[in-house]
């Protein structure tokens, strides 16, 4: 069975499937709802009856139930890794239902796509994909409750409403708890999904407000449980020595010294899957199984392993970077073409040509990968894991153990950060394989060094952009060459170009009104595991494009903000398909339902420049930089302010973002994603880089793979949310891409030195 | 293997462990107190911060043999009902995103306020520089510490 996660930016053509299921039309709910509502009508699965047949729990669909204590339980089916989604989706159900938010209990779903729909928490999808289904889940129950109350009081149900866990009838002043209607609900029919009425946006009490995250109390009390915190009686801890180079094979190993460490019980080999091992397979390794983590760590240190390092043993990333830069000088594979760039560049009065480089990045979630697996005597497996994609974890375990997926249960814990790393279930498969081998529960614990050495890295990249200006200074030609080892290269040696998905992340969707555009990609081989990191290829594409546009504005003598507003051209909705070689994936959505709307982009740009008091000149020793970038269907403009302190060190006093993400669901979590996004992007811009020498990662821990610390963080981060009634879109990733070029453009203004390579070599605080 | 008697959150615990076992693994694996987190194992990230006699230390890098009679406080013992001013301020400002590093942040901040009840912004930044947050909650952490310092 081929394992393909449904991710919009993956090189696989799975977008159609996703949009068929989840296009925001009636179909997506019928797909999810038919199973769920069917359960209620049949009286099985979702309805719990007492000994006399009385209804104890009302559960009209898979997402919610109401019990006799008037407690509303709502299922969170997407993974919580810090975005607040475990709060923000259930709160939509609760708001539509009219539940009392203080009497709502949130339960985390197991991995079960058939019941809950897509659970792959990635691609800033959750709000976009599930805003409507969550409203409908709440509305279905709300209408049934109103019907039941209408029957009880002999009034027209349409005169009823639900608030704070009660149905109320304004005309008669009657009110009743949801739980007092459970018996009556037995005879209620599921409302017709076609005519189901949803509340008006103005009617919501939670949506559009600041709602604190459900888990905040447990977190600050130390009671919140992450993957690494899960225990089972009789469990063992495993720490694994993995292949130092991707594709390396164990020639032989000596376990005697490891077994001498008190507490070490067993040493077990895990087989790898070659130099292009795929996204869901473990690396080859030797696992040390022990009673506790420290024994396992010491046991591993005592192992002696002889490796055949394989085909990647001579890989030097610096040499590949030189090759990639050279590649961009020639003609590449055409990915988008409009007009005739070569002729336009030939006739241009001035041609600018710049090359941009960005390094490999590791995710470095503060919780390193960890997973607990229990292979049971009956041949089933139960997993507890901090996974972004429980269904893929389930399928991958089933595949590795040659089981039916029905025999694998994946419980999702809180994730101590995800950023794309914990989509890949390699560590979950490790735990399952080891548990089966020793017939005991096994928790695999990665150390920080394991995490830095064996990640699925954000790819390093080279880009060359040629821009042509005519005699009047108009931008008439844009030629963008991009090259980086693609995500597809992790699974196949033949995948040498970025996929349409990766190209569509901020490169082929170049939105500016330029008459001649030519976008090309070049070949690069993957020598390590390439994955996706918060905003993926948008990171390097936005860095190059928005840095270049700033430089072009300067040459044209224009204010950078005015320049971008003018380049966006007339207010219009863009579809790139007619100019695209292949298909523009549009993050898995139909371009007609989610067009690229230049007016929405202009609105965020105008807002951010007003809020930040944009100034193109240095004032009081402070300089501002600007960039705008749409990603994951969310429009973002960003202004970063930099300053040099008395010691000559750079600080970032202020950051302003304006965002149009359609309907704003949980405003506090939108702001927190932008605050966090600015800090995450600061690390990418200022301090992080992974280097390979002889196929091995040079960095080991947070001393050499650095992420920013509190003193380096921007001092103030303001997020200005555009009021909108457009369909809601995600905010997990969109803050990252524009921040980096906005920072670089600000630094240029301060120092007069353009930045062409990340991380920035500058003296930050 | 040796026997150690530890004073943890006001209670006495006996554990058997090799003398080089970092206090972190004693806390997590032997005492099953899961609020103290593993992040780096090298005192570089602060996720494992606890107090020894009121002083913030990185438990991943202190062998159990060095603890002696010092009183250990973990996040579970920071306050009787989770009502330490920092824990309240953390909730008021909804500081956490993923939450994993936050117990270490709170323990570090608690030691800071113990020594310096009204730290300046710069003093907060310096004191908290050893605690990493990958989600990027530094600004809210700073605000929450300022709120708690005023209570």
TrEMBL record, chain B:
Keyword Cytoplasm: no
Residue ranges constituting the 2Fe-2S ferredoxin-type domain according to the UniProt record: 2-78
Organism superkingdom: Bacteria
One Pfam family per UniProt: Fer2_2
Keyword list, A-Z: 2Fe-2S, Iron, Iron-sulfur, Metal-binding, Oxidoreductase
SUPFAM superfamilies assigned to the protein according to its UniProt record, in alphabetical order: 2Fe-2S ferredoxin-like, CO dehydrogenase ISP C-domain like
Protein name: (2Fe-2S)-binding protein
């Amino acid at each position: 069975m081929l394992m393909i996660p449904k991710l919009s930016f993956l090189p696989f053509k799975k977008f159609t499937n996703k949009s068929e299921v989840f296009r925001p039309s009636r179909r997506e709910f019928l797909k999810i709802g038919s199973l769920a509502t069917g359960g209620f009508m049949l009286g099985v699965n979702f309805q719990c009856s007492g000994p006399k047949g009385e209804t104890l729990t009302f559960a009209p669909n898979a997402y919610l139930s109401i019990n006799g204590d008037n407690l509303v339980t709502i299922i969170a089916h997407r993974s919580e890794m810090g975005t607040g989604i475990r709060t923000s989706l259930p709160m939509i159900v609760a708001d539509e239902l009219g539940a009392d938010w203080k009497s709502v209990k949130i339960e985390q779903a197991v991995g079960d796509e058939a019941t809950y729909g897509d659970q792959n928490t990635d691609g800033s999808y959750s709000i976009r994909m599930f805003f409507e289904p969550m409203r409908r889940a709440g509305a279905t129950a709300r209408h049934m409750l109103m019907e039941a109350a209408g029957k009880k009081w002999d009034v027209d149900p349409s005169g009823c409403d639900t608030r704070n866990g009660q149905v109320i009838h304004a005309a008669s002043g009657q009110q009743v708890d949801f739980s007092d209607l459970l018996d009556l609900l037995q005879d209620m029919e599921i409302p017709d999904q076609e005519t189901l009425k949803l509340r008006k946006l103005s009617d919501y009490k939670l949506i559009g407000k600041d709602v604190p995250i459900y888990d905040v109390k447990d977190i600050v009390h130390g009671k919140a449980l992450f993957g690494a915190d899960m225990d089972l009686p009789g469990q063992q801890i495993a720490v694994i020595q993995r292949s130092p180079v991707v594709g390396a094979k164990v020639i032989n190993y000596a376990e005697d010294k490891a077994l001498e460490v008190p507490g070490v019980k067993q040493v077990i080999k895990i087989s790898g899957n070659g130099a292009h091992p795929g996204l869901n397979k473990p690396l080859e390794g030797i696992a040390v199984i022990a009673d506790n983590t420290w024994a396992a760590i010491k046991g591993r240190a005592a192992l002696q392993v002889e490796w055949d390092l394989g085909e990647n043993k001579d890989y030097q990333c610096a040499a590949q970077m030189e090759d990639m830069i050279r590649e961009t000088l020639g003609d590449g594979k055409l990915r988008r073409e409009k007009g005739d760039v070569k002729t336009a560049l030939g006739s241009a009065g001035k041609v600018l040509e710049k090359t941009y480089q960005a390094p490999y990045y590791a995710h470095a979630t503060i919780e390193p990968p960890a997973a607990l697996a229990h292979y049971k005597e009956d041949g089933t497996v139960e997993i507890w894991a901090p996974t972004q994609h429980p269904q893929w974890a389930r399928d991958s375990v089933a595949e590795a153990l040659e089981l039916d997926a029905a025999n694998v249960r994946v419980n999702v814990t809180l994730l101590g950060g995800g950023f794309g790393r914990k989509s890949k279930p390699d560590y979950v498969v490790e735990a399952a394989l080891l548990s089966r081998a020793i017939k005991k529960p096994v928790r695999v614990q990665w150390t920080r060094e394991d995490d830095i050495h064996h990640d699925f890295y954000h790819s390093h990249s080279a880009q060359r952009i040629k821009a042509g200006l005519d005699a009047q200074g108009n931008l008439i030609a844009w030629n963008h060459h991009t090259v980086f080892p693609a995500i597809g290269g992790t699974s196949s040696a033949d995948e040498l170009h970025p996929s349409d998905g990766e190209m569509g992340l901020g490169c082929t969707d170049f939105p500016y009104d330029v008459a001649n555009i030519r976008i090309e990609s070049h070949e690069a081989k993957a020598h390590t595991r390439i994955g996706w990191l918060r905003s993926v290829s948008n990171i390097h594409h936005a860095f190059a494009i928005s840095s270049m546009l700033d430089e072009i504005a300067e040459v044209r003598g224009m204010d950078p903000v005015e320049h971008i507003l003018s380049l966006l051209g007339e207010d219009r909705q863009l579809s790139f398909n007619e100019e695209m070689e292949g298909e523009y994936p549009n993050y898995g959505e139909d371009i007609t339902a989610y067009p690229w709307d230049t007016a929405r982009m202009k609105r965020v740009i105008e807002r951010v420049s007003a809020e930040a008091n944009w100034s193109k000149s240095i004032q009081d020793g402070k300089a501002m930089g600007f960039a705008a970038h749409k990603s994951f269907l969310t429009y973002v403009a960003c202004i970063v302010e930099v300053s040099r302190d008395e010691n000559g060190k750079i600080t970032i006093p202020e950051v302003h973002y304006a965002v149009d993400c359609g309907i704003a669901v949980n405003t506090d979590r939108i702001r927190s994603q932008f605050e966090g996004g600015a800090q995450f992007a600061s690390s990418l811009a200022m301090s992080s880089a992974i280097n390979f020498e002889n196929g091995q990662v040079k960095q080991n821990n947070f001393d050499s793979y650095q992420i920013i610390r509190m003193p380096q963080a921007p001092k103030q981060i303001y997020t200005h949310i555009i009021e909108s009634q457009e369909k809601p879109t995600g905010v997990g990733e969109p803050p990252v891409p524009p921040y980096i070029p906005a920072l670089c453009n600000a630094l240029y203004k301060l120092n007069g030195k353009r930045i062409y390579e990340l991380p920035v070599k500058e003296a930050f605080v | 293997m040796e026997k150690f008697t530890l004073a943890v959150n006001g209670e006495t615990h006996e554990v058997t462990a090799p003398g080089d076992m970092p206090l972190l693994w004693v806390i997590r694996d032997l005492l099953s107190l899961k609020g103290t987190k593993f992040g780096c194992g090298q005192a570089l990230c602060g996720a494992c911060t606890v107090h020894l006699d009121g002083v913030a230390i990185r438990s991943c890098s202190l062998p159990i043999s060095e603890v002696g009679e010092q009183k250990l406080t973990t996040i579970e013992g920071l306050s009787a009902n989770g009502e330490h001013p920092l824990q309240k301020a953390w909730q008021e400002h909804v500081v956490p995103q993923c939450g994993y590093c936050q117990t270490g942040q709170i323990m570090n901040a608690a030691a800071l306020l113990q020594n310096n009840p009204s730290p300046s912004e710069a003093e907060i930044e310096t004191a908290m520089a050893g605690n990493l947050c990958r989600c990027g909650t530094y600004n809210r952490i700073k605000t929450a510490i300022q709120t708690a310092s005023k209570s």
